[in-house]
Write a structure and sequence with these properties.
Strand order of the largest sheet: 2-1-3-4-5-6
Number of strands: 6
Number of helices: 5
Radius of gyration: 16 Å
Oligomer: single chain
Distance between the termini: 32 Å
Structural class: alpha/beta
Largest sheet: 6 strands, parallel
Helix content: 25-40%
Length: 183
């Protein structure tokens, strides 16, 4: 008798202000759970404030958040899972990509509103989403880097860093489309 194992794990890496209970991460987490993934949600604490536009503080925040995630995940034996998925939002995309490169190179990546630094890691299996009115990312550079890494990048006109615009109805439609593509 052959017993098939299908252990799956999804790890969520939020943004600094975009926590795991916000729409993109909440619904993608629900999707993962419905598909039988075990779920781990990382969080960060005591990061520098007012980092927008301050490269030094952004690097410091990224390094601190990475170390907090490394500490949280250090006991996880990723080798027992047949499928590992990392889902990141904003700075969480950088952490997810770096963590995958260093510890779980076979992990798939879902990148919500990635920063340019996300693409500095060796990315193999990913999908990404960004708004063209995202003040946290250089859209042209993210597009260039995503193409260079062969990462499909879906761009949403008029959407900000939360993939939202000025219409609640359109926000729900976009969220639905993003979740369908994430699936």
């Amino acid at each position: 008798m052959c017993i098939m194992s299908d252990k799956k794990l999804a790890v969520f890496f939020p943004g600094i202000g975009y926590t795991n209970d916000k729409p993109l991460l909440y619904y993608s987490r629900k999707m993962a759970e419905e598909r039988g993934y075990e779920v781990i949600c990382t969080e960060y604490h005591d990061l520098p404030e007012k980092i927008k536009g301050n490269k030094e503080k952004m690097i410091q925040a990224g390094n601190m958040a990475f170390e907090q995630c490394r500490e949280l995940l250090k006991e996880i034996d990723f080798a027992v899972y047949d499928d590992v998925l990392f889902v990141g939002k904003s700075i969480g995309t950088v952490i997810a990509a770096q963590y995958a490169e260093k510890y779980v190179p076979t992990a798939g990546l879902v990148l919500y509103t990635p920063l340019e630094a996300t693409y500095f890691a060796d990315i193999r299996d990913a999908i990404a989403f960004i708004g063209d009115a995202d003040p946290w990312s250089d859209l042209d550079e993210v597009k260039r880097l995503a193409a260079q890494k062969h990462v499909p990048l879906y761009t949403y006109p008029g959407c900000n860093h939360s993939l939202e615009c000025n219409s609640w109805k359109r926000n729900i439609e976009i969220l639905g489309k993003v979740m369908e593509l994430t699936e």
